[in-house]
Amino acid sequence: MARAALRFVCSSCGAAVPKWTGRCEACGEWNTLEPETPAPGVTSRRAGRSAGRGVDFVGLAGETPLPERVPLGIAEFDRVLGGGMVPASAILVGGDPGIGKSTLLLQAAARLAGAGKRVLYISGEESVAQIRLRAERLGLRGAPVNLASATVLADILAALDAERDVAMVVIDSIQTIWDETVESAPGTVTQVRANAFALIRAAKTQGFALMLVGHVTKEGALAGPRVMEHMVDVVLHFEGDRGHQFRILRGAKNRFGATDEIGVFEMTGRGLAEVANPSALFLAERHGNVAGSAVFAGLEGSRPVLMEVQALLAANPGGSARRSVIGWDQGRLSMLLAVLDARCGVKLSAQDVYLNIAGGLRVSEPAADLAVAAALVSAATGVPTDPETVFFGEIGLSGELRQVAQAELRLKEAAKLGFARAALPRRVAGGTRRIAAPDGIALAEYGHLSDLVAATAGRVPMEEDER
Question: Are residues 385 and 294 in contact, defined by beta-carbon separation less than 8 angstroms?
């Protein structure tokens, strides 16, 4: 029998080509083509397909019950999932090596097993003895979790088929599982795609929730074929800086709930501890009388989070000025520096600019523009911002300030933490409704960035609208 022809498949877009090239012509990505041997008997010819039975179509109208959820017992984890995991769903958890993925899932498995549910934990990276040692460090030695160490897909599927009343199955990790019928090494595109499909099909058929741990590339994306992210129901990213104790569980996809929700954890000697009030923790070490600092009232999913934006300027006598950013978009910083220069007369082109979001959190929403601008102006003038003021708002290229969503939710979080004032964009006449500020919060509304520059530099008093 002739050997199946070797082809190369792009791990980013899934395009297949007969020979290897450095760049995928379909998506333009470099070094993403990996070898794949088609399974025996697989053909794309229409004549080789068997006659199907057809499918039944129904209308949009009809009664569909809401999915039943099973709480994991970890409030921050349940929050990101939308209130708990849904039976027969597939959840993919990715993150950097050593960030705490296995620790988090072992804790979730122990909580769920302690609630009387049957939980299976299958590891392809560690032995049972190693998992027991971690459980002992975390204080989970007595949890009724069923452990196994296996890498062969056929053995895992046979074991799952023999089990009954299983609530959750953890596979750590999908890159270590090996299908003997696929002629490629574990972790390759072909293996990961085939193994994920088989395990997800088993979860849908038998009704248990499947937790897949996925490795990430050096760029931070989930390793393996992108089609795997489309196959699963939920994609979660576990983020964090090893230099900080905080860990962020962020939802990137959720077919049963909202995306962009976050859960905040703190890495301790006893594992991952939930952080119910991350704003207080992110601002715990803030010093309000230092120039170059401003508090941003952000929003992560439906959760308001207050964090400190820090800016530092250093003279650069010659050469090109340096721009270093941690936790924010560097391109947006360049835009803000250009707006400050062209629209407000704040010249920073000859200075090195260092920007940091304290606490290791990464901010992506444009509402952080105003807080970043306030920190930059404060660092440039040497005048500290008001320590009792929070900032939020988007800045346009002409220097105008634009309103952002959920302003009242941000203000409530600021009032809860004792802030007395908030700097935000001015309402447009005849536009949005009046913002209902909480008791004790005074609003300073600005229409243009130059107004904030003048107020921060102390040249004019802040105009407050006492509510």
Answer: yes
Determine the 3-state secondary structure of 404 from DSSP.
coil
- Gap between the Cα atoms of 69 and 81, Å rounded: 10
Spatial distance between the Cα atoms of 173 and 126, rounded to a whole number of angstroms: 10
What pTM was computed for the model? Answer: 0.77
Q: Is 165 annotated as a binding residue?
A: no
Residue from 195, 277, 243 nearest 96 by CA:
243
Residues 6 or more apart in contact with residue 323 via CB below 8 angstroms: 330, 333, 334, 337, 352, 353
Is 218 annotated as ligand-binding?
A: no
Alpha helices in 345-420 (DSSP H): 369-381, 407-416
Residue 100 assigned as binding residue: yes
Mean pLDDT in consecutive groups of 10 residues from the start of the chain, 467 residues: 68 79 84 70 50 86 84 94 94 90 95 96 95 94 95 96 95 92 82 92 96 80 74 91 81 88 89 89 80 93 91 87 93 96 92 91 92 95 91 96 92 93 83 74 93 74 41
Does 98 show up as a binding residue in the annotation? Answer: yes
